[in-house]
Design brief:
Chain A: InterPro entries: Citrate_utilization_prot_B, NarG-like_sf. Chain A: It comes from Cereibacter changlensis JA139. Chain A: This is 4Fe-4S ferredoxin. The complex is a heterodimer of chains A (364) and B (464). Helices cover 65% and strands 0% of the residues of chain A. Chain A contains 14 helices and no strands. Chain A has helices at 13-25, 36-40, 48-57, 63-67, 80-94, 99-107, 109-130, 144-172, 180-191, 215-243, 255-280, 291-313, 320-336, 344-363. The model of chain A is unreliable at 1-8 (pLDDT under 50). Chain B folds into 2 domains: 2-208 and 402-463, FAD/NAD(P)-binding domain; 246-397, Flavocytochrome C3, Chain A, domain 1 (Alpha-Beta Complex), CATH 3.90.700.10. Chain B has helices spanning 17-28, 71-82, 88-107, 133-146, 198-205, 223-230, 286-289, 293-298, 330-336, 341-354, 443-463; strands at residues 2-3, 8-13, 33-36, 53-55, 126-128, 150-152, 155-163, 166-174, 180-189, 213-214, 235-236, 242-248, 269-271, 305-309, 325-327, 389-401, 404-405, 412-415, 418-425. In chain B, the strands form 4 sheets. In chain B, strands 1, 2, 3, 6, 7, 8, 9, 18 and 19 form a 9-stranded mixed beta sheet that branches. In chain B, strands 10, 12, 13, 14, 15 and 16 form a 6-stranded mixed beta sheet that branches. In chain B, helix 1 packs parallel to helix 4 (133-146) and helix 3 (88-107) packs across helix 11. The longest helix of chain B has 21 residues, at 443-463. Chain B starts with a strand and ends with a helix. The model of chain B has no long low-confidence stretch (mean pLDDT 94). Classes of the chains: A mainly alpha (364), B alpha/beta (464). The interface between A and B is medium-sized, with 36 and 33 residues.
Chain lengths: 364, 464
């Protein structure tokens, strides 16, 4: 029988999530909070892939937990945010290539810091060894071609690995044919982070027990939109360089700066907010074993943005050399860890939202 | 006995919906309020934590409710379930007041769901709490605390001291420590019924009540209710009766709540311990009949029933928290459930032979009835002939008791000598005045909200 509570501690993450979801599905009081509960009601029995899908749809808003009449000390001992976080985390590590790297970096902030040190050493050494004779701004310290030669593979190789993971995910959750309208729907959901608004618009439960607040949603969106702006900034620089022959340094009104400076500021604010909120939140409502890795990832994003801003502020001074090495090392670490860190959540969640958009159409 | 150093204007006994509505109303009127909740924090809120909706009168569409639900229709629905066992004046006042409660609830933090995909379609008559009753309870506690209300958990009120027509103080055990005295100028009793006290149930109902399951909180043991009745307070409601529905026999003894309900009865045959059918499983649609099955099962030997269905019907009802017992043949299923295989097979054979061809329609009365059986099944009667076969054990699950304190329009508690000048009651402890029999979905929360607000207002006016 699936409700043998004595055996609960021996259940795998997926089995424990199944036990809990079957109880949830007989109640359904939480239907209005987020995308998970309407998706749950489509089934009576949950295959492993169904649970992977629900887990990646869950944004850990915790509304269901604080509203649940069956949380511990009740014998049903429901903790849906944690149960789904475990399955979700498991799916990110299981579908990653190679899995051992994913386990290492998800769990250990120290490993992330170690990689950062390696990257720092690399860039200081590169700048010392390959310092060009000409070039303006930071190209005076490292030639554009060298940067491109390093960063294009460091960016594209992890992306390729992520693509393979997402393909496996799509198969596992039995996603249907992909349509543009599904992508648009998912984009809308993520762009406004609807799954952290609580369904009623009061926000989610995170840093203040059962009180709803918008703080986490705001901090997350500062981070997400800030990151996208910074990414757009770098992309615009690349386009200006290759298409228009306009090379860095750019003035403040040029797209790389117009996008990069507010984006960087938003990222720093977002990282600060997310880190502080995480310190206040109950770690038992998430995947506890990756708390350190998650915190290190938030800080890494903050440092990427902060060093970028400081580098801009230091334009023309002697500090540009070491600052450039530090900034490039943080960016390199972030890129390399995309498939093996919390960064992967964005790719999986978005894919889950796309898959859900399709599944919703099928049930109508 | 220790005196608590602080004195309050109003002491509220209980920590569910009615208590919180009273506390918030009184605190907003400027009173210093203390809530004495018997349960620890995780179980706070009494039976309100298991509720899910609020039945609300409305003359036109009113978010989240659709259409209109007028006083007369609401009262008619109440008369149907109570068979006239209601006090019309109080009932109509409650119904009329429900309309202004909905916006009040929203202003005080309660959030409703726009629509539901569940099996019971009640979007016209009932407003569903987003996240259910515990979310409502959380919202009210947060609102009350912001208003400066003091909340004490694990506070068991042992005695209400009555001096003539006034209450002077309470004896309260806090976290199992020796009792302390809590004084206030006015008191509100909102501590529920006695359905979790199995000894009391057994005295009222008979020893078979010990086999009943209690669907809600184990903290409603009626200590304060009994104390007031012993002190001569006027009572209302049948002291021997409780509201019970048929739930999964494997449910926890207490606090199983919504997930232990079983909706399979209309598509099943239900046999007793001896393998015999005992009532028309297809008498009416399940929302209209689920409430009588607790009593029906309670009247059977060992207070147990067994619902049997075949493969045709397994997807026709909401999933239950416990998986059904499954077998390829009826005798095998009977054996797995501890029943006499031959007796159950004979019952199924008789039933199958009495089924007639016709159109089966799961969501309406389809008239597909048996012929020639002493206990007919008058709708949805289809033979059990497609393996695998499934079985669920049914037991009575007690929701609430009817015996309560008789109150006036102003929620004031009375004695044969007249009203107690500083004592009010709200919620399940007085619901028997209005709900003398049966149950109407979402009406308990209506009574609690309406009378909680009245009690809070009257108590605050008394101390002002």
């Amino acid at each position: 029988m699936s409700l043998d509570f004595a055996l609960k501690t021996q259940l795998s993450a997926t089995e424990e999530a199944r036990r809990q979801i079957e109880i949830c599905n007989a109640c359904r009081y939480c239907e209005g909070f987020c995308s998970v509960f309407p998706a749950m009601t489509r089934q009576k029995a949950f295959a492993d892939g169904d649970l992977t899908h629900l887990a990646n749809l869950c944004h850990n808003c915790r509304g269901c937990h604080y509203s649940c009449q069956y949380t511990a000390p009740h014998e049903f001992a429901l903790n849906i945010p944690a149960a789904l976080a475990e399955v979700r985390q498991d799916s990110w590590e299981r579908l990653a290539r190679p899995q051992t790297l994913a386990r290492l970096f998800h769990e250990r902030g120290v490993a992330m810091a170690g990689l950062l040190v390696v990257a720092l050493t690399l860039f200081f050494a590169l700048i010392a060894a390959l310092r060009p004779t000409g070039g303006d701004g930071f190209y005076a310290y490292m030639a554009h071609n060298v940067m491109i030669a390093i960063f294009i593979p460091a960016f594209l190789a992890p992306l390729a690995l992520i693509g393979l993971s997402l393909r496996d995910y799509w198969r596992e959750v039995e996603g249907g044919p992909l349509r543009l309208r599904h992508l648009l729907k998912a984009g809308d959901m993520a762009g406004r982070m609807k799954n952290l608004n609580g369904g009623h618009g009061d926000g989610c439960n995170f840093e203040d027990g059962d009180r709803f607040s918008q703080k986490r949603r705001i901090a997350h969106q500062l981070m997400m939109w800030g990151f996208l702006a910074c990414f757009a900034s770098t992309s615009s620089g690349t386009i200006l360089h290759y298409v228009f022959g306009w090379t860095a340094p750019y003035p403040f009104w040029a797209p790389p700066k117009l996008l990069g400076v507010p984006g960087g500021l938003a990222m720093v604010a977002g990282a600060l907010g997310l880190a502080l909120l995480k310190l206040k939140a109950d770690p038992d409502l998430g995947a506890r074993r990756v708390w350190g890795g998650e915190m290190a990832f938030i800080l890494l994003l903050g440092v990427v943005a902060l060093t970028g801003l400081v580098l801009y502020a230091a334009t023309g001074t002697a500090a540009v050399g070491p600052l450039l090495a530090i900034h490039l090392a943080t960016v390199m670490t972030l890129f390399l860890l995309m498939p093996f860190s919390k960064m992967i959540h964005g790719f999986f969640r978005f894919t889950a939202l796309v898959a859900e958009a399709g599944k919703l159409e099928k049930t109508r | 006995m220790t005196e608590t150093p602080e004195t309050y204007d109003i002491a509220i006994v209980g920590g569910g919906n009615a208590a919180l509505c009273a506390a918030i109303t009184a605190a907003e009127a400027g009173a210093r309020v203390i809530i004495l909740e018997g349960a620890p924090v995780p179980y706070r809120g009494g039976n309100s934590r298991h509720t899910r909706n609020f039945r609300c009168m409305h003359r036109g569409p009113m978010s989240p409710l659709t259409g209109a639900y007028e006083e007369d229709e609401y009262f008619h629905d109440l008369m149907l379930v109570t068979k006239g066992k209601t006090e019309e004046h109080l009932a109509r006042m409650t119904i009329r007041s429900s309309e202004e409660c909905l916006p009040w609830m929203q202003e005080h933090g309660v959030r409703f769901q726009p629509s539901l995909s569940g099996t019971l379609s009640l979007s016209r008559t009932n407003a569903f709490f987003l996240g259910g009753g515990k979310a409502l309870v959380n919202a009210y506690y947060n609102t009350a605390e912001a208003l400066g209300v003091t909340v004490v958990y694990e506070a068991q009120v042992r005695h209400v001291h009555r001096d003539g027509q006034a209450i002077t103080h309470l004896d309260v055990e806090i976290a199992k420590a020796p009792p302390v005295t809590i004084r206030a100028k006015a008191f509100v009793l909102a501590s529920g019924g006695f359905q979790a006290d199995l000894d009391w149930l057994a005295r009222a109902w008979g020893p078979s009540a010990r086999n009943f399951l209690i669907r809600g909180t184990p903290y409603n043991r009626g200590v304060v209710l009994k104390d007031m009745l012993d002190q001569g307070a006027d009572s209302v409601g049948d002291p021997t009766q409780c509201h019970a529905v048929a739930i999964d026999g494997r449910a926890p003894k207490y606090d199983g709540g919504i997930v232990t309900r079983l909706d399979c009865v209309p598509f099943s045959i239900v046999v007793n311990r001896d393998g015999q059918r005992f009532y028309d499983e297809g008498e009416d649609t399940w929302p209209k009949r689920y409430a009588i099955w607790g009593r029906l099962v309670a009247a059977q030997p060992d207070q147990v029933g067994y619902a049997l269905i075949d493969a045709k019907s397994i997807d026709l009802f909401m999933p239950s928290v416990f998986p059904p017992i499954v077998a390829d043949t009826i005798p095998e299923l009977a054996a797995k459930m501890g029943l006499d295989p031959a007796a159950v097979q004979a019952t199924v054979n008789d039933f199958n032979a009495a089924c007639r061809p016709g159109t089966f329609h799961p969501t309406e009365l389809d008239g597909l009835a048996t012929e020639g059986l002493a206990t007919a099944k008058t709708n949805w009667a289809r033979p059990l002939d497609q393996a695998p076969f499934y079985g669920y054990q049914l037991r009575p699950g007690v929701t609430f008791t009817y015996l309560g304190l008789k109150v006036s329009d102003s929620a004031q508690v009375h004695t044969p000598e007249g009203p107690i000048t500083n004592l009010w009651a709200a919620g399940e402890i007085m619901a028997g005045s209005i709900l003398g029999q049966g149950y109407l979905a979402g009406f308990g929360m209506t009574i609690g909200t309406v009378f909680g607000r009245i009690a809070g207002k009257e108590a605050a006016a008394h101390v002002a």
